[in-house]
Design a protein that fits this description.
- By secondary structure, the protein is mainly α.
- The chain is about 50% helix and about 5% strand.
- It is built from eight helices and two strands, in the order αααββααααα.
- The protein is globular and about 65 Å long.
- The protein starts with a helix and ends in a 6-residue tail after the last helix.
């Protein structure tokens, strides 16, 4: 269950070099340069492994910083913490998909599922309604602030039911505590 160098290097390659530095004044291009050094990469991996093994997410990674940019609110997290979150997210997504825990019609927020997939599915449903002479409509809503109002106890129960290791469940319980902007 330990994190690997490959997970970190493949996750950071996808990060935008032009992004704005986060609270720690570290941009992705800086972290990419730092992680070229194998001992620095090993140290960050060791920190991530210890955090997951003891079920603890450092407070330093929980602090959010908001900044108005391009007429919308941008939230910055600690860059090193974001990298670890990307890897954990990939692992979680792999496990819930491989265990058929997410319904096949779920399109948002998943790898290899895009707005194109959503458009194709929506077009299909509309055309099927037309063929069957059934009026078709859609309701959409933005759940971008959903995570902030999520029942944390319920989330841990869901993670347990999805078959996650007790260390992962403990980690997420701690991850959700004392987050602030």
């Amino acid at each position: 269950m330990l994190f690997s160098e490959e997970e970190f290097t493949s996750a950071i390659v996808k990060c935008n070099n032009l992004s704005t530095p986060s609270l720690d004044k570290l941009a992705w291009r800086h972290l990419k340069h730092i992680l070229k050094n194998k001992s620095c990469l090993k140290n960050i991996i060791d920190i991530a492994n210890v955090c997951l093994n003891i079920g603890y997410w450092p407070f330093h990674f929980k602090i959010l910083y908001d900044s108005p940019k391009l007429f919308r609110l941008i939230v910055y997290l600690n860059t090193r913490g974001k990298l670890v979150k990307k890897i954990i997210s990939d692992r979680l997504q792999f496990q819930v998909i491989s265990n058929n825990f997410i319904h096949q019609s779920q399109l948002g927020g998943l790898k290899f599922k895009s707005t194109t997939n959503t458009g194709i599915a929506l077009t299909y449903f509309i055309h099927m309604g037309w063929i069957r002479n059934i009026p078709t409509s859609i309701l959409t809503f933005d759940i971008s602030q959903f995570f902030l109002s999520l029942n944390h106890y319920l989330l841990t129960l869901i993670l347990e039911k999805a078959g996650f290791n007790s260390r992962v469940v403990k980690f997420f319980s701690n991850y959700l505590v004392s987050r602030r902007t």
